[in-house]
Design a protein that fits this description.
This protein is α/β, with parallel strands linked by helices and 415 residues long. It has 3 domains: 47 residues, Arc Repressor Mutant, subunit A; 138 residues, 2-Layer Sandwich (Nucleotidyltransferase, domain 5), CATH 3.30.420.40; 163 residues, Nucleotidyltransferase, domain 5 (2-Layer Sandwich), CATH 3.30.420. The chain contains 16 helices and 14 strands. This is ROK family protein.
Length: 415
């Protein structure tokens, strides 16, 4: 038998199997492209996956059959365009959801989050946090279970955001500084126990709130498209940071990377919970702004809301508030400049109170970063506000969605 005939037979034997495997292997990457808005049409999906149009069509059809996306085969053409428009792809509005939960110093909240980072439903936030993690997580899971009952949605998993470094692989909250929880609380195990007690047969995941906020912003918000994204945010108390590299969260060897709140910006400043003084954590959070402006924290409402109200309501009219804002901005800029020197990000996004500080005086903050950083002088690093509401909740949902993005068929078979 000649070589050409042998090769022809091999192609006839292996091609169908190869096409089938390629299509199945492309389900996860295709879903992630639609989930993050990078494949709005089948034509773009074909190009991004590097497959034939037929394979892309089969993959999109399979994801639609799974109830994850919708395919509009007859989209309307844009005015002035020529030719037949490509099939439009979007996440299924009535598809499954992830249960997302967040605990912070001023309370907790539960939500249901669909693909695309879309919040489907939220439960009213609680404003008290018990010193017993099991009590708190039991309440937040009960609130999430109520949302699932009310909506009748299928749940693929659950994610929890906490204001603490979370050690991996144990899932323990090492330093919940602004909660009364014990150090080293096994929050992931407690979370899963609460899910089981509520009758939810799903896997629970856990992560640091700012890490998860950065992940959500990278996939769906202000960080979209950045290759080296630095996120710094205040939360409700304290300061956290996160780094997303080439689309993946950089959490270090044990989940503890980017504890930027303990970067010193004023050696003679306030004592910090970590044992040092003048850390970002205590010099640029909501309490720091209130104190710098000579305002005592109110008896009700979150400190974050009080500080935001100060910036939006009195910055333009009260010199003391303007001076306090400038002081906190200078401290934040000094910290960001140090991080730019070390990490060389291509974009910085600011969340919590920091986004409001940026809005109050963007030129001042950018000038401080540029003046005090090597790379800022050679080329300004974009500094932008976070854009997602409840980005830590959306990020918690991303943890639950990740197994589905990795392997939709297997994940949905067990969910």
């Amino acid at each position: 038998m000649c070589l050409l005939e042998t090769q022809s037979q091999n192609r006839r034997v292996t091609s169908p199997r190869t096409r089938l495997d390629r299509g199945r292997n492309a389900l996860g990457p295709a879903l992630e492209l639609v989930h993050t808005g990078r494949a709005p049409t089948r034509a773009v999906l074909t190009t991004e996956l590097g497959v034939t149009r037929a394979t892309a069509g089969a993959v999109a059809g399979e994801l639609q059959t799974l109830g994850l996306i919708t395919v509009d085969s007859r989209p309307s053409a844009a005015p002035g365009s020529q030719g037949r428009p490509s099939h439009r792809l979007s996440v299924a509005a009535d598809g499954p959801v992830a249960l997302a939960a967040q605990v912070h110093a001023d309370g907790f909240r539960a939500a249901l989050v669909g693909l695309g980072g879309r919040i489907v439903a939220t439960a009213p936030g609680c404003v008290t946090v018990d010193a017993d993690p099991a009590q708190v997580l039991g309440e937040v899971v009960a609130a999430g279970a109520g949302l699932l009952r009310d909506t009748g949605r299928r749940c693929v998993g659950a994610g929890l955001a906490v204001p603490s470094a979370v050690a991996e692989p144990e899932g323990t909250a090492l330093n919940p500084l602004h909660l009364a929880w014990p150090a080293g609380a096994p929050v992931r195990d407690i979370f899963n126990d609460c899910l089981a007690a509520a009758g939810l047969d799903v896997t629970g995941h856990c992560g640091n709130d700012i890490n998860l906020a950065a992940l959500a912003e990278h996939r769906h918000g202000a960080g979209h498209g950045a290759a080296h994204l630095l996120c710094v945010a205040t939360g409700h108390r304290g300061v956290g940071g996160a780094l997303v590299l080439e689309g993946r969260l950089h959490s270090g060897s044990a989940g503890l990377a980017l504890e930027v709140g303990h970067l010193t910006v004023d050696p003679g400043g306030r004592p910090c919970h970590c044992g040092s003084r003048g850390c970002l954590d205590v010099e640029t959070d909501p309490l720091a702004l209130l104190e710098a402006a000579g305002r005592a924290p109110g008896p009700a409402g979150s400190l974050l809301a009080q500080a935001q109200d100060l910036l939006t309501g009195e910055h333009a009219t009260d010199p003391a508030v303007r001076d306090a804002t400038a002081t906190v901005i200078d401290r934040l800029g000094l910290g960001l400049a140090g991080l730019v020197n070390i990490l060389n990000p291509d974009r910085i996004i600011l969340g919590g109170l920091h986004r409001w500080l940026l809005a109050a005086d963007p030129d001042r903050l950018r000038a401080v970063v540029e003046e005090r950083s090597l790379w800022g002088r050679s080329g300004a690093v974009p500094i932008e506000p976070c854009t997602l509401d409840h980005n830590s909740l959306v990020g918690a949902a991303e943890l639950a969605w990740q197994p589905v993005l990795d392997d939709p068929l297997s994940a949905l078979a067990t969910a």
